[in-house]
């Protein structure tokens, strides 16, 4: 254990903190590393606390950094942890923590705001760990210090209370929430009283300070306002989290009717002062803006956590009236004019509150229980559930009249009209941003959170109104369509802005109003002329019209009501492709609209083929003219979808696509997201090009080399897509290329690091074998053997079942060379079979390897493998005892045969069962007495396979492919059996595979004829069940069987 730090270490620690602040990395980096090593030493936090407390001598920046290190050390060292490697405990001792809890309270009175905030945060971190068990008197000590007349200390204590309560409110265990409820009962009354007192001081001081002859001390008023704000934040935490949410409990929170009216009244009183402090240099500007905004956020937070408790007649109606009026006439509450300054941040909070109030009633509707019963009194409904439904019904009945009064039909239509006319139109600042940076403006609008801006927030509320008041909104929507039609030729800027806002509204309502809007008429009457216009002043309309087209095509595709006809698509394609020549905002809007049309259930390739060339050409041009990462992602995403939908029709454009991709790859260094998309696009292009993908080698091969190189900085992001592209390339190319063969050297390193991509890697190995054959094994055979040997026994069941098919493929193509090459792997498989730790499915799949050896090389080679395994002393402990005395391996082979026959039912594919039957016939043909002793299970296996594969007179079921692989989910996936590339190679492999060309009945007949003369055969035949013989005669015919079997009596003799 490291030596504790003492007072003598304070000065060196102070110097180290100072060096850590040095901007020179050569100085700062070693200092940071030194601090990291000191963190675990006892006394480190005590020394930091001493530096923080040294206000007279220590530099401000060093004290601040000491606070940060103190806070971060609490997260890592405050809770004791046991180090299992060293057998020791890490973390601060109980004595040091007790001392620190006392010292941090002495740091509260801090002159510097930045350090005071850090001190409050570190106290909150300690409280999270120690309150209430180790620090039960925390809040008592804090409240006790409020008795002093020190204004700064009082302000800092409320800052600490706010931070501590905020930290404790995030704990979610039951006992932590009960502790917080107790804190609420202890703190609410003093905090509420202090907040009310400070509110009265503000009501008197702020108007007096706004007068020319102000007699108020600004510093004292500012301190009161700061304390008021921290107190308000603490009260918000207490009310929101000191009680269970009435969403779940359905119980009233008693503080809500007390707190919300006071907060709303304070907000109404402060708001008129806002218009007088527009100058940011005014001392009250920040106070009033932050204060009003925090009041509204507190009201919203309480409404979100306790919506049912807000239903009191003195709470909900005034709150809804205030928010509704502020949204409709935001200038009135602040004493401004429609053209004057607007308090947008407060308006956004009002919009959010209206959405929340309008949605929580719907969300709290009684849901069906697990038996689908919703009727009170149902015999399947429990008593508790019945009480909840009754209580919820009562609450809904109480709040329904209040909501109906606010959201009456007249007020809903008025609100919708105001949202569209006041909040939807583009402002002058929007147009300036558009003109100065089109790309930046588009992506800012596209990615902006709806809670951070007026227009997106208003759009969310509008959609909610359309969904919940659809019948009332129908007349409104029709009147908008008529107005749009009547102002088609207008060039008035105000009219154009209104048209753009209405397009936005109708696009947002597209799904809910699809049956109401005659889109066909609107498309040809308004949208087509709008999209065809070349007037620069109508660019916003063209951008919005393109978006509307995409919205309605998407809505029509996902609805039972189709308002989009196939005749509209060619004209829409033409108009949207033409928009790709305008400025970046319109271009990117057209890209989004085209994506909606192409990535659609109703998309047909034939209808788009004439538009493919101009679309791709303009998209390539757009890639060169844009420079934002998001723009390139958007364009490439559309190119990817077009390639996916159009298939091999994109072949004539591959050269252009490759050129664009090459340029984008070079320009996207460090932008892994864009490079991932480029790799995915290349994957689709390889699929579309088929065997012609060799033309893409100049870019494709370096791309594969980079993506599959584990030393590259972006390999974690590109590896998965790179491996899939690699596999697809191997499947499509007609012949091996030396550079493609050399690429295999990356694969072993990938699997040495992890087995995350094991399935794809094994598919790659299989494709290499089928593609290159002898040259591949000659160059990489040892690496493949080592790779397979390292995987056997080291992976889980699903992965283990993927390994034997690869070994079988090597044995099928190269029986002699493959057997010698893979002998260590097969020895390990044999040990695995007898170890008894693998599942039946794994053991059954492993038997397929030895079945291939039998089928292609014969029983002697299998005997040699068994004998070689007997020579391994480490394996002898795993093999059965009766095998250890036979060094020839025959006894081991018979034990293996018993396991094989026992696990035969676990063979899950027809190919595997047929392979096993043919191999057993090979083994039976040796005539060995030990094999004949197992004649019954061998015949049973063969008979079942004959019935499965030859009942219709063919060697296998029609249309069945024996070469199957397993997907990631475990389902069987049939390989491509037609076409060129790997599909053609698979067909050729199937044609030459004995499993497909041989009939089990013919091989069995020949085998039985060859062993009838063996002396032990008659004795073995006597042990065969008569029913098996009867089935054998049924499937093969009595004339095809040897005389001994044809004349066998029903009793087997």
Write a structural description:
By secondary structure, the protein is an all-alpha fold. It contains 54 helices and 4 strands. Helix 9 runs parallel beside helix 12. The radius of gyration is 39 Å and the shape is globular. Residues 82-88, 364-381, 953-978 and 1049-1053 have low confidence and may be disordered. Belongs to the importin beta family. Its main location: nucleus. Residues 31-110 form the Importin N-terminal domain.
Summarize the structure.
With 1053 residues, the protein is mostly helical. It contains 54 helices and four strands. The protein is globular.
Structural class: mainly alpha
- Strand percentage, roughly? under 5%
Main β-sheet, in a few words? 2 strands, antiparallel
- State the strand order across the main sheet: 1-2
The number of strands is 4
General form: globular
The rounded Rg comes to 39 Å
Which regions have little confidence, pLDDT < 50, spanning 5+ residues? 82-88, 364-381, 953-978, 1049-1053
Distance between the termini: 84 Å
Question: How confident is the prediction overall: mean pLDDT?
Answer: 87
Number of helices: 54
Which range best describes the helical content: under 10%, 10-25%, 25-40%, 40-55%, 55-70% or over 70%? 55-70%
Organism: Cymbomonas tetramitiformis
Region (Disordered): 968-992
Family: Belongs to the importin beta family.
Main location: nucleus
């Amino acid at each position: 254990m490291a030596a504790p730090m003492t007072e003598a270490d304070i000065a060196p620690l102070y110097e180290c903190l100072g060096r850590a602040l040095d901007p020179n990395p050569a100085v700062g980096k070693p200092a940071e590393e030194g601090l990291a090593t000191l963190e675990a030493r006892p006394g480190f936090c005590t020394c930091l606390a001493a530096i923080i407390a040294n206000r007279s001598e220590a530099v401000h920046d060093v004290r601040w950094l000491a606070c940060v290190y103190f806070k971060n050390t609490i997260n890592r060292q405050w809770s004791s942890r046991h180090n299992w490697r060293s057998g020791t405990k890490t973390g601060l001792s109980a004595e040091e923590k007790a001392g620190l809890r006392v010292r941090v309270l002495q740091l509260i009175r801090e002159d510097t705001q930045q350090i005071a905030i850090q001190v409050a945060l570190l106290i909150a971190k300690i409280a999270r760990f120690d309150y209430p068990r180790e620090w039960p008197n925390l809040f008592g000590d804090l409240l006790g210090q409020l008795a002093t007349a020190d204004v700064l200390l009082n302000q800092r204590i409320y800052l600490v209370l706010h931070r501590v309560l905020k930290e404790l409110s995030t704990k979610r265990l039951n006992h932590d929430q009960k502790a917080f409820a107790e804190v609420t009962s202890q703190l609410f009354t003093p905090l509420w009283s202090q907040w009310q007192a400070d509110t009265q001081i503000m009501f008197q001081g702020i108007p007096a300070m706004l007068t020319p002859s102000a007699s108020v001390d600004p510093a004292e008023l500012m301190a009161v306002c700061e304390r008021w704000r921290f107190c308000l934040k603490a009260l918000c935490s207490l009310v929101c989290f000191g009680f269970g949410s009435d969403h779940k409990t359905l119980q009233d929170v008693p503080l809500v009717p007390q707190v919300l009216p006071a907060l709303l009244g304070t907000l109404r009183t402060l708001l008129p002062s806002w218009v007088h402090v527009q100058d940011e240099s005014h001392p009250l500007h920040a106070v009033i803006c932050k204060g009003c905004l925090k009041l509204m956020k507190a009201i919203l937070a309480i409404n979100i956590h306790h919506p049912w408790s807000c239903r009191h007649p003195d709470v909900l109606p005034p709150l809804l009236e205030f928010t509704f009026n502020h949204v409709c006439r935001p200038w009135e509450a602040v004493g401004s004019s429609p053209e004057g300054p607007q308090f947008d941040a407060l308006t956004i909070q009002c919009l959010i509150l209206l959405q929340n109030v309008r949605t929580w009633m719907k969300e709290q509707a009684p849901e069906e229980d697990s038996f689908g019963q919703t009727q009170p009194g149902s015999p399947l409904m429990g008593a508790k559930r019945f009480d909840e439904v009754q209580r919820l019904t009562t609450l809904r009945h109480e709040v329904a009249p209040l909501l109906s009064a606010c959201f009456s039909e007249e007020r809903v239509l008025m609100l919708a009209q105001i949202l569209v006319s006041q909040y939807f139109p583009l402002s002058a600042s929007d147009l300036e941003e558009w003109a100065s940076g089109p790309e930046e403006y588009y992506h800012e609008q596209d990615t902006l959170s709806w809670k951070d801006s007026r227009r997106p927030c208003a759009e969310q509320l509008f959609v909610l109104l359309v969904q919940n008041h659809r019948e009332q909104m129908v007349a409104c929507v029709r009147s908008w369509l008529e107005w749009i039609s009547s102002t088609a030729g207008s060039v008035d800027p105000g009219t154009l802005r209104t048209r753009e806002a209405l397009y936005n509204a109708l696009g947002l309502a597209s799904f809910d109003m699809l049956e109401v809007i005659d889109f066909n008429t609107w498309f040809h009457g308004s949208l087509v002329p709008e999209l065809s216009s070349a007037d620069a002043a109508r660019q916003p309309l063209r951008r919005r019209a393109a978006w509307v087209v995409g919205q309605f095509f998407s809505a029509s595709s996902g609805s039972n009501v189709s308002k989009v006809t196939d005749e509209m698509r060619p004209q829409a394609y033409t108009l949207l492709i033409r928009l790709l020549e305008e400025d970046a905002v319109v271009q990117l809007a057209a890209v989004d609209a085209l994506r909606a049309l192409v990535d659609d259930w109703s998309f047909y390739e034939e209808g788009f083929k004439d538009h493919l060339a101009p679309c791709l050409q303009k998209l390539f041009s757009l890639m060169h003219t844009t420079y934002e990462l998001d723009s390139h992602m958007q364009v490439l995403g559309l190119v990817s979808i077009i390639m996916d939908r159009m298939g091999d029709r994109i072949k004539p454009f591959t050269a252009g696509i490759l050129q664009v991709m090459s340029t984008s790859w070079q320009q996207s260094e460090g932008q892994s997201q864009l490079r991932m998309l480029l790799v995915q696009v290349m994957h689709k292009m390889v699929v579309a090009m088929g065997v012609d993908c060799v033309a893409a080698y100049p870019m494709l091969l370096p791309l594969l080399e980079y993506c599959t190189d584990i030393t590259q900085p972006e390999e974690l992001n590109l590896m998965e897509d790179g491996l899939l592209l690699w596999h697809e390339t191997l499947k499509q190319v007609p012949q091996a290329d030396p550079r493609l063969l050399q690429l295999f050297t990356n694969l072993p390193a990938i699997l040495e690091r992890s087995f995350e991509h094991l399935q794809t890697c094994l598919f790659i190995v299989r494709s290499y074998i089928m593609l290159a054959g002898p040259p591949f094994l000659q160059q990489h055979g040892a690496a493949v053997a080592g790779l397979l040997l390292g995987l056997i026994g080291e992976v889980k069941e699903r992965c283990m079942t993927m390994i034997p098919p690869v070994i079988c493929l090597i044995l099928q193509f190269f029986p002699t060379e493959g057997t010698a090459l893979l002998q260590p792997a097969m020895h390990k498989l044999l040990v695995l079979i007898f170890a008894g730790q693998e599942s039946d499915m794994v053991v059954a799949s492993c038997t397929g390897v030895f079945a291939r050896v039998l089928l292609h090389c014969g029983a002697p080679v299998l005997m040699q493998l068994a004998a070689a395994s007997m020579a391994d002393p480490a394996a002898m402990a795993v093999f059965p005892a009766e095998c250890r005395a036979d060094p020839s391996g025959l006894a081991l082979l018979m034990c293996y045969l018993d396991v094989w026959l026992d696990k035969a039912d676990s063979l899950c594919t027809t190919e595997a069962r047929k392979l096993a039957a043919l191999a057993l016939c090979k083994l039976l043909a040796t005539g060995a007495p030990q094999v004949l002793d197992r004649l019954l299970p061998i015949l049973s296996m063969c008979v079942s396979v004959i019935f499965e594969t030859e009942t219709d007179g063919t060697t296998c079921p029609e249309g069945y492919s024996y070469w199957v692989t397993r997907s990631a989910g475990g389902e069987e996936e049939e390989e491509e059996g037609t076409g060129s590339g790997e599909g053609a190679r698979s067909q050729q492999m199937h044609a030459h595979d004995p499993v497909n060309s041989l009939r089990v009945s013919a091989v069995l007949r020949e085998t039985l004829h060859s062993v009838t003369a063996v002396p032990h055969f008659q004795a073995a035949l006597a042990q065969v069940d008569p029913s098996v013989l009867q089935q054998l005669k049924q499937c093969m015919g009595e004339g095809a069987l040897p005389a001994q079997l044809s004349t066998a009596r029903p009793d087997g003799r």
